[in-house]
Specification:
By secondary structure, the protein is α/β, with parallel strands linked by helices. The chain folds into two domains: 131 residues, Alpha-Beta Complex (Aspartate Aminotransferase, domain 1), CATH 3.90.1150.10; 242 residues, Aspartate Aminotransferase, domain 2 (3-Layer(aba) Sandwich), CATH 3.40.640. Helix content is 36%, strand content 17%. The chain has twelve helices and 15 strands. The strands form three sheets. A seven-stranded mixed β-sheet has the order 4-10-9-8-7-5-6, sandwiched between helices. It has a four-stranded mixed β-sheet with strand order 1-2-3-13. Helix 2 packs antiparallel against helix 9, helix 3 packs across helix 9 and helix 10 packs parallel to helix 12. 46% of the residues are buried. The mean pLDDT is 95. Bound molecules: pyridoxal-5'-phosphate.
Length: 393
């Protein structure tokens, strides 16, 4: 890869992947790797899913791209599916290509329709790689520090009087961009009562809520979307990554109320690949497979088993702080705090045994995010090897 500038901030570990099928990646020497990172959360159905591939190939032969003023029915069909699973009937969707674009679109909508100067997000949320959403600083954002919640003895009794809510300039806040569970790759889940209080506070002050479901969407956490663990209904839901199962498509679903306000405003947004039928056909096929194969429920069930088994295995080692997760979005955090060596060693040892798990340079956490249709034998193999590796540390 001499002529490619690789993902900055990540090491290039295997340079010669030539094939991917289901949970497996193969290198040019025929070596097989079990992908328990699901291609950075992008392949909830595993790589090269036959039905999604069939639909995408057929669509390519038909029409891939239409342009601003012309539409293909695949786009409308995908929008109907998304509005149903997000609980936003009567609303509308836009389709773009990446998660960053989907969050940015929602942020621009919130700023436009609220007419207020700032948006609120939790201090450790990740909103994207570029655009105004990526720059969480300055006058445009209020960053809410919820670290007190992690030591709170009664998180279920959270009240709006708590000092965590203390300095929110409510009248200035046009919306809350809520990432329900990723927190910059650390897989942290804000407490339910805290989020409910926050959503209530924002809505009472005429602000709106956008759920950033780029990583937590498409069944990953054992519900269709991460916000569904909180019994709230966002006005905007942004999704990407797993939506195309490897094909780059993202979407923003908006409530009828948001659409009415947009129609009354002078909001303008266009991109070359907006609402392209190719990405929409992939998205629709992914949703249909998730539904027909009951994979959201499976993610919940297998996640409970995997978290329990990992907790048992990790309980024997004092260099492990915690196993946490929802559905098949799981993290293992190591001790001592800020020491990244155990995570790096375990990552490497698992790779040598043919298992890919997720590691971010500079973090003391590993993530385990297999596809939602992962074979249970692969889970057993993974647990066996992980246990062996921990004993070797
Ligand atoms: C929570 C969250 N939001 C947004 C994004 C941006 O998505 P993309 O990389 O597809 O632009 C990511 C990417 O990892 C993410 O984790």
């Amino acid at each position: 890869m001499e002529h490619v500038l690789w993902s900055i901030g990540h090491d290039l570990i295997i340079e010669n992947i030539v094939k991917a099928q289901g949970c497996y990646l193969y290198d040019s020497g025929g070596r097989r790797y079990v992908d328990f990172e699901s291609g950075v959360w992008c392949t909830p159905l595993g790589h090269s899913h036959p039905r999604v591939n069939r639909v995408v190939k057929a669509q390519v032969d038909h029409i891939s791209h239409t342009g601003y003023c012309y539409a293909h029915p695949a786009t409308e069909e995908a929008a109907k599916e998304i509005l149903e699973i997000t609980g936003l009937p009567g609303g509308k969707c836009v389709f773009l290509s990446s998660g960053s674009e989907a969050v940015e679109f929602g942020v621009q909508v919130l700023r436009k329709i609220s007419g207020k100067p700032r948006l609120l997000t939790l201090v450790d949320s990740f909103l994207g790689s570029y655009g105004s959403a990526g720059k969480k600083r300055g006058e445009e954002w209020h960053l809410l520090d919820w670290s007190l919640c992690s030591t709170c003895s009664r998180p279920d009794k959270c009240t709006p009087q708590c000092r965590v809510f203390g300095d929110i300039p409510c009248e200035e806040i046009g919306g809350f961009v809520f990432e329900p569970g990723n927190s910059s790759g650390q897989v942290r889940f804000p407490p339910v009562a805290f989020i409910k209080n926050l959503v209530h506070l924002i809505s009472k002050n005429n602000g709106f809520v956008q759920a950033n479901e780029i990583t937590t969407g498409m069944g990953r956490t054992g519900e269709w979307f991460g916000f569904q663990h909180y019994s709230i209904q966002p006005d905007i839901v942004s999704m990407g990554k797993g939506l195309g199962n490897g094909y780059p498509v993202s979407s923003i679903a908006m409530s009828p109320g948001i659409i009415d306000r947009l129609n009354e405003s002078s909001f303008y947004y266009s991109q070359s690949h907006i609402n392209d039928p190719l990405g929409c056909s992939a998205a629709r096929a992914v949703i249909q497979v998730l539904k027909e194969d009951n994979l959201v429920e499976r993610s919940k069930r297998l996640g409970e088993i995997l978290i329990k088994r990992l907790t048992e295995i990790c309980g024997n080692h004092d260099f492990i702080k915690e196993v946490r997760g929802r559905g098949l979005m799981i993290a293992i955090e190591f001790l001592p705090e800020h020491d990244t060596v155990p995570a790096a060693q375990i990552y490497r040892a698992m790779l040598n045994r043919g298992f890919i798990i997720a590691r971010r340079p500079g973090r003391n956490t590993l993530r385990v995010d297999p596809p939602l249709n992962v074979d249970e034998n692969d889970i057993e193999e993974f647990l066996y090897n992980f246990n062996q590796v921990l004993h070797g540390i």
